[in-house]
Amino acid sequence: MKKIALYENPSKPEARKWAEYAARKIIALNAVCYASQELIDSFPDELASQTIACPISNFEKFIDVVISFGGDGTMLTVSRILVNADIPIMGFNVGKLGFLAEYSTCEIDESLNDLISGNYRIVDRAILETEINGETIYALNDFVIEKKNSSRMITIEAFSNQHCIGIYRADGLIITTPTGSTAYSLSCGGPIIAPSTQVICLTPISPHSLTFRPLVIPDTTELAIKASSGSNVVNFVADGQTERLLKSGEQVVIKRSKELCKLIKPLNSSYFDLLREKLLWAADGTSHNPKQ
Questions:
Q1: What is the topology classification, in CATH, of domain 128-258?
Q2: For labeling, which of 121, 147, 175, 246 is most exposed (least CB within 10 Å)?
């Protein structure tokens, strides 16, 4: 019997609505449903009485699968909290694009049936890690080093296994996993990288020199990044959610973590199916001709 926990984005009413729907379905399929007390309190009494309260900090002790309702940001939050838990995550998209939360609520009944019956696959996604002031910080998508409280560019020195890669004059630098290649990096001209590829990509943000281009390197590389700014501080951001301030000239070391994020995917789909759906690569530009 599967023990399934629900995690919703509390700022999205649609996420809470679909989490309630999923709870009913999970219980009807004779699985055990867990959720936060806050979410359970929003359920009707008869459903609340059948759902077990459990904070996400205790998911590791009881849960087989976590279902996320929100967008990619919600998935990133769950992955960061559960980074040491080895629990697979299934994401329903009630946000915008949904590269991580790729399941559609339009097919929620079929998807939950597949989950309970084991008709799915689990993929491992690489995670980056660094340590700042004794705190280990993880990123499933990317780390970003960027200017803080200034319109002026910053200077970023990047080293690969102690060998100098280059000195960037730019608004910032993105260090991305293959999973994060379709996020901020893509909007800055970075390449789309298949998630199974064992690489890290460095994508500059608005570099002063046009000769700087995204650089793909093996993920066995240990990166040392040092940023200098006239404002004496730079911003360090993990997955667009965790922010830390670095002193100008302070160095951070970034490497692939031993931890992995496990994502649940449809059994008969591929990454290329996802790209065609989300980026409209299969769209026919000639199918809607304007009136003559």
A1: Tumour Suppressor Smad4 (2.60.200)
A2: 121
